[in-house]
Amino acid sequence: xxxxxxxxxxxxxxxxxxxxxxxxxxxxxxxxxxxxxxxxxxxxxxxxxxxxxxxxxxxxxxxxxxxxxxxxxxxxxxxxxxxxxxxxxxxxxxxxxxxxxxxxxxxxxxxxxxxxxxxxxxxxxxxxxxxxxxxxxxxxxxxxxxxxxxxxxxxxxxxxxxxxxxxxxxxxxxxxxxxxxxxxxxxxxxxxxxxx
Length: 196
Description:
It is a single chain. With 196 residues, this protein is mostly helical. Helices cover 76% and strands 0% of the residues. It has eleven helices and no strands. The longest helix is centred in the first third of the chain and has 15 residues, at 3-17. The protein is elongated. The two termini are 37 Å apart. The relative contact order is 0.06. The mean pLDDT is 94.
């Protein structure tokens, strides 16, 4: 048996003795999340929220579990709820924008990214996402500006070089595109989009 299994048993014993221990439900949810058992994680997070509906960490972890399962609408409900609890959290606005982008709601995504950057101007992932939106709108100069600014903020921002490769392809510069793909792979060996 692993330490993780022992931890799970200990948490279950705590809940058996006192089912009102909120953090035990939360920690069980986290353990199931870590194991990629998202349905179980959600079930345990829900129990924690039954006991404390405004537990912000539970709200966000539950939303992330829904997102990991591809259940974007439920994830969005959680992200919106978290924004009510913590309206100055730029990262959650970025995560919300990612769902909106994935669902083709580009104008709403841009609004969330703009709010995220107003809260945290150096959030490179949000800046990179604005570059993606500019690229989707055909604004190649704007896309390059945003993506390069993201890289200036954080040299290894995930998918920035992938996005520069897409930009170079649209500009017909295949050698530059290949160089950017290679750079993405160097920085993020596990980048599924660049590992083809």
